[in-house]
Write a structure and sequence with these properties.
By secondary structure, this protein is α+β, with helices and mostly antiparallel strands. Among the domains are: 361-450, Serine Threonine Protein Phosphatase 5, Tetratricopeptide repeat (Alpha Horseshoe); 457-525, no CATH class. It is built from 29 helices and 33 strands. The strands form 9 sheets. Strands 1-30-29-28 form a 4-stranded antiparallel sheet. A 4-stranded antiparallel sheet has the order 2-3-4-5, covered by helices on one side. Strands 6-7-8-9 form a 4-stranded antiparallel sheet, with no helix packed on it. The longest helix is centred in the C-terminal third of the chain and has 41 residues, at 739-779. The chain starts with a helix and ends with a strand. CHCR repeats lie at residues 568-712.
Amino acid sequence: MADVEEQGRKESEEFTDESEEEDSEEEPKLKYERLSNGVTEILQKDAASCMTVHDKFLALGTHFGKVFLLDIQGNVTQKFEISSVKINQISLDESGEHVGICSEDGKVQVIGLYTREGFHENFDCPIKVVALHPQFSRSNYKQFVTGGNKLLLYERNWLNRWKTSVLHEGEGSITNIQWRGNLIAWANNVGVKIYDIGTKQRITNVLRDNVSLRPDMYPCSLCWKDNCTLIVGWGTSIKICVVKERNPTEMRDLPSRYVEIVSAFETEFFISGLAPLADQLVTLYFVKENSDQMDEEFRARPRLDIIQPLPESCEEISSDALTVRNFQDNECRDYRLEHSDGESLFYMISPKDIVVAKERDQDDHIDWLLEKKKYEEALMAAEISFKNIKRHDVQKIGMAYINHLVEKGDYDGAARKCQKVLGKNMELWENEVYRFKTIGQLKAISQYLPRGDLRLRPAIYEMILHEFLKTDYEGFATLIREWPGELYNNSAIVQTVTDHLRRDPTNRTLLTTLAELYTYDQRYDKALEIYLRLRHKDVYQLIHKHNLFSSIEDKIVLLMDFDKEKAVDMLLDNEDKISTDRVVEELADRPELLHVYLHKLFKRDHHKGQKYHGRQIVLYAEYDRPNLLPFLRDSTHCPLEKALEVCQQRNFVEETVFLLSRMGNCRRALQMIMEELEDVDKAIEFAKEQDDAELWEDLISYSIDKPPFITGLLNNIGTHVDPILLIYRIKEGMEIPNLRDSLVKILQDYNLQILLREGCKKILVADSLSLLQKMHRTQMRGVRLDEENICESCHATILPSDMAKPFSVVVFHCRHMFHKECLPSSGLIPGVQFCNICSAKKRGPGSGILEMNK
C-alpha cells in the first residue's frame, strides 16, 4: 500500500457515507485505504474473485484464472497461471509455505511456495472451495479438503501417495469451508456442518434459516473466532456457535463434542462477510434500497459495521458505507471479507476494488479531534501518547490550539497555553509576543512570560512595560513587583517612569513603582525618600532588609510621624546601630515624640536611659500624667527634688504625696492627703503602708473633730491601732454617722481576732505534740555500728578488733560516736554528757545519749 498514510487520509471521505453527517460527532472506529500499486493494474484488466490473507503476504485470485502473490502494500511478488476461468478459492497454511487453489473448471492445485512438492487434480465438476490443514507444512498433517458436489478429504500416506475420503455428500454444492485446529466447518445448501478430524466424527448440523434465498447468490459466511467458536452468517442471520466437550456419562452413541449456539440474531442487511474484533464482530453487508422514483430496488454501497453480539440481538458500535468501484453492478456473492489474525486488518474484496480497513491509532484519533476543532482534547491525547504518535508533534498541535484561541478572540486562554506549549523555545516565545503586539494584546501575554531559567531578550520585557505604562499604571506596578529586576534594563525603565512623573508628580502608583525600581537598582536612599514621602508601609521592611540605619539617622522624625509605634520598636531593636543619644538628639525639638521613645525605652529596661529620667519627669507631666506615678515608683535614678518641684508646680497631689513619703516627710504627705484630697481611706491606707505609730496619732488628732473621718477610722484601724484609744478621745455629744455599725464592726473584728488566736493556738499545740512524738520515736530507734564507723575523738574504729573483750561506746542522738573512755568528764549536770562537736558548734547538747556496753 504505497502512499497509504497520505492517500488513505485523502480518500477517507470517498469511503464513508456523506449522508450520515448526523453522526459526525461520533469518532469512527476504523479508517479505510484502497489497496493500490500492483492491484490497481490487475483490476483494470481483470476482476478479483477471491483473496486470502497471511501476516506476511496476500494471495489474490481473478476471474481469468490467475493467482497473484502480493506484499501488504499491493505490489506483485509472484504470479501463477492456473486456469482460463474463475479462481474460486485460495487457501494458505499457517506458515504461509503452501497454497491451495481451486477453479471453476474443476482444477485443484496445492503448491509449495518454497519447495517443489505439489498436488494437481482435475475434476469433472466445478470445485468451489479448498482448505489446507493449518499445519500442512508438517509431514504429519499433509491433509486438505475440497468442496464441489461432495466434501473430499485428501491425505498423503506413508507411501507418499494421496488417499481420498468422502466426508459428506448429497446436500447440494459446498460453498464455504473453514479449517481450524482439528475442526472443519463447511456450508452446503442445507446448513453448516462441523467435522472433528481427530475423532472422525461429525458433531453438528446448523440448519439454514431463510431457505427462500438462493445459496449461490447469498452464500454462507464462516469465520472461526478461536479454536472452539464458529461464527455463521447467512442471509440476514448471524449465529455464534461454541464447540464444547460432552460429559462422558452422556456420550453413549453420541459424538464426544457438541455445539451450543450462544447468540443468534437477525440483521438489517444481507451478510457478505464476517470477522472477529476482540469480543465484537466486523460485518460486511450487501445493501439493497428502494428508489424514490421507481418501485424496484437498486444496489447501494456496501456497509462495514462493528457490532456487539448479545444473546438474542446485537448493538451497533459503528457503521460506514463504502464507495467501492462499480458497486452498482455487484451482487452479495461478489463481496468477501478477509482479515489478518496478526493485526486488526480487514480486507473488503469486490470484483474491481479492494479496500483495507484498520483500527484507528492515536494519530488518527488526534486527526479527528483536530478536524472537529477539539484542540484541548487533541493536545491532551498527544501529551499522554507522545511516545506512540508518529505523524503528529505535541508542540505543533499546541500551536494550532493557540492559533484557534486567538482566532476566537480568547486572548487570555491563548496566552495561558503559551506557557505549556512553547516551553523553553525562546524563538517561539518571541514570535508569539510580537504576534500579540500586532493584535494589540500584549497585556494578555504579559503575566505568562517566562521569568525563571528561560528568559527572553530584555527588549521584549521592556516593550511590554512601555505598553502598560501608556495605559495602565496599576498593571505596570504589578509587573514591576512580580518580575525580577534582571529581566529588563532597569535604568531605562526608571528614566521612563521619571518622565511620566514630570507630567503627574503626585501619582502614588508611579512613585511607589519608582521606589521599587530604585530598590532593584540598589539606590536605597532614593527609595527610602519616596517611601517616607508617601508614608508607605514597606519603609520599615526596606530599612531592615537592606540595613539602612545609617541613612535614617536624620529621618527619625519622619519615621515617627508616619508610625510612632513601629518606628520606636525598630529604633529600640537596633540600638547598636542607632544609639539612644542620637535618637534623643534628633527628637529634641519634638518632645511629644521624644516622650514616646523614652517611655518605651524605660518599659524595656529601667536603667538604660537613666540619665534622661530627669527630663522624662517633665515629659510625663506634660504628655502622659497617668504614667508619671508608675514611672516615679519604678525609677531608682529619678532626681526626687526636681520631681517634687515639678509636681508641686502642677499641683499633682498624688505624685507629691508619693515623693514626700519617699523622701521621708511622711507627716507632710499625710497632711496633704487629709487636707487637699480629704480622702480618709487613702490616708488610712497610707498610714498602713508606713506602719508608724506617730502617723496614726497624727491621723487620729486630725480626724477627731471630723465625724466622717472618725467613722472611716473606726471601720479600718481595728487591726492596727487599739480602737479604745480613738473612742476615748471622741467628744461627748458628737454626732458620728453610722457609729452603731462601726462599733458592731469593731466588736466583730475583735471576736474574729480572738477566734483566730485560739485556732492558731490549737494548731500550734497539736503540731508541737506531733513533732515531739516523732522526735521521741526517732531517738528511741537503734543505731547500727560497723567497722566503718570511727570515734569522733581518737578517730580509731569504733569497734575493737577483738570483739571478745569488753568495750563501751557512747552514741549521741546527733549520730556522733565516741569510745566511753574518750569522752571528757561530765560537766555541770552530774551524770549527763554532751556531744563535744555539737556543743562547740552551738548546735545543742546532743542529749538523749545511747550507751552500749559489752
